[in-house]
Amino acid sequence: xxxxxxxxxxxxxxxxxxxxxxxxxxxxxxxxxxxxxxxxxxxxxxxxxxxxxxxxxxxxxxxxxxxxxxxxxxxxxxxxxxxxxxxxxxxxxxxxxxxxxxxxxxxxxxxxxxxxxxxxxxxxxxxxxxxxxxxxxxxxxxxxxxxxxxxxxxxxxxxxxxxxxxxxxxxxxxxxxxxxxxxxxxxxxxxxxxxxxxxxxxxxxxxxxxxxxxxxxxxxxxxxxxxxxxxxxxxxxxxxxxxxxxxxxxxxxxxxxxxxxxxxxxxxxxxxxxxxxxxxxxxxxxxxxxxxxxxxxxxxxxxxxxxxxxxxxxxxxxxxxxxxxxxxxxxxxxxxxxxxxxxxxxxxxxxx
Length: 352
Fold this sequence. Notes:
Layout lengths: L1 E5 L2 E5 L22 E4 L13 H13 L5 E6 L5 H11 L3 E2 L2 H9 L6 E2 L7 E5 L5 H10 L2 E6 L11 E4 L7 H11 L4 E3 L28 H16 L2 H9 L11 H10 L49 H7 L3 H4 L4 H17 L1
Parallel strand pairs: 2-3, 3-10, 4-7, 4-8, 5-6, 5-7, 8-9
Antiparallel strand pairs: 1-2
C-alpha cells in the first residue's frame, strides 16, 4: 500500500491487497486519520463470498491428493499466487517448474528455493493463465494424465473436465473490506475498480470529521496552478512557447562555464548595457564564509545584502567604455593591444 501525506491531507492507496488483522499493528496506519482511501474493491459484493488463502490452499492440496498419478499445472498471472506455489511445493516435497524469466522473478522476490526452470524436475508446473484452455489440456493429457488448477476468486468458464477453479485470491473479500474500513475509519472511500457503487457498504464506518480533500480529481492548489499556467500560455507568443519547450529546466545549483557566458553575451550584442551592476556573491557556508573548491556538495547560501557603493567606484572614460563593451568586440584585441590602449589613455590624461 502507498501512504501520501502533505498539505493536501492524507491519502492511502491500497493497490491489490488482501486484508489481514495483522495490518492493524502497522505503525504507519495505527491511529492515523485518513482523508481519502482508494480501496481495492475487486470483490466488493455481498453475494461473492471468498475463503481465506489458507483454506483455499488446503482445498487445492486435497484436489491434488485425489489425483496422485497426475501432473499438476497451475495457471497464474505475471505477479501473484507465489505463496500458493511455495506452500504446495513444501506440502508435496516437489519442485515447481517455471519459465526462465519467471524463475528470475522469483529470485528477485527472494522467495524460498522451490522453483526451477529444468523441465521434468518436478510434477507441478506454473504457466501463464492463458495456457489453461481446451487445446492445451488435450495435448498435455495425450502425453501424461494432467489436471489444471485456476486459483481465482472470479467466476470462470470451464472448458475441460480437468480444469479446476480454486477460490484463491490476492484481493480482499467483501467481509475483509468491511472490517478494514471499519478499523481505519477514513473520511471517504474511492473504489479503484470503476463502475462500482460499493461506497454504500462503507458509509456507516466513515469518519464524520471534515476531510482536507474536497475534489477527488485534483487538489485545489493544483487546479489554480493549472489555470494560471493555461492563461499565461494563451498570452505568450507562439515563438516563445516553442523556445521554452526546447529548454530544459535547471534543477539545484547550476554553474556556467566562461565559454557559455561568452556565447550568451554574443546573443545580446545589440542590447544596451545597464549603467551599474554588481556580481552575484559567491556561495557561502552557514557561517557566512565563501566556500573554496571543496569536494562536498555546495551548501545553500544565506542572502547577503550588497555593500553600499559610492560614486567614486563608478568607472569613467576608457575604463567605463571597456567594461560596457560586449565580449565579442573585446575578443578581437590581444592582451598586448589592450595594454597599449590603456597606456595611451593615461598618457593623454596626463598631457591634458
